[in-house]
Amino acid sequence: MEDLRLESKKKVLAVKDLPTLPQVLEEVSKLVEDPTVSTEKIANVISKDQVLSAKVLKMVNSPIYGFPRRISTIQHALVLLGFNVIKGLIISTSVFDIMNKSMVGLWEHSLGCALAASTIAKTVGLKDPEEYAVGGLLHDLGKVIALVQLPELKKEVEELVKKEDIPYYVAEKKVMGFGHDRINAWLADYWNLPLRLKEGLAWHHQIKSAQYYPEMAAVVHLADFITRVFEVGFAGDDHASKLYPEACKILKLSSKTFEAILDELADEFLELSGFNPEE
């Protein structure tokens, strides 16, 4: 099994086959390392790619973030959201084409999870709720990459889900020796994502393993659970993911507040339905 895991990791991270991230992301990542660089300069580099800029701005103005006034420039978006959020949105739009063609339900689920994560983070008073939304948006990224890099294994996973009626990530571990959460961790390192975001992507199914930012793992876990309960999109199986009580304890979330979040999201999910950043 260990040999299969190592071989699969090599395939997953094969650079020539990974979805190509825009060149501007590499340029901007270098700029951000300079503490004196201005948001205007960073925004100018991103704005060179007009198609990408349009997609990012559409995401920023989506119901996920709920800003009262329209954000019309990348610079304004950077000031409001910060580079980590914009970087996450750029990555999500870069893999969207793959989702759009063969995993439409997963994209809808990911959008729903982003909205739920943002709402949870705001409700419990966490700083920078927009970053939690990115955690929700990218939490199933490993499933998309598995489709590209390990298509033959992904088919086995889907067949096992139907045959044994088990959750998708359980089937992943049976077939591949690891789940999409492990792929998420590899990608987070490969794309140099912030540690807080990596913890959410890697540990939303194993909250106790999040050593540095358990709040992020807890928020993404709850967001995934709620999005499945409301049946927003399709994450690969019909199971509502197991709800870990630790998530509510970490966030100091009472049952009354949790119910209020569910009521709020019932309306917000309706507003989100039909949203497509490609249109």
UniProtKB/TrEMBL annotation:
Protein origin, superkingdom: Bacteria
Entry-linked InterPro entries: HD/PDEase_dom, HDOD, RNase_Y/CdgJ
Domain HDOD as annotated: residue spans: 18-207
SMART domains hit by this protein: HDc
CDD domains on file: HDc (cd00077)
Name of protein: HD-like signal output (HDOD) domain, no enzymatic activity
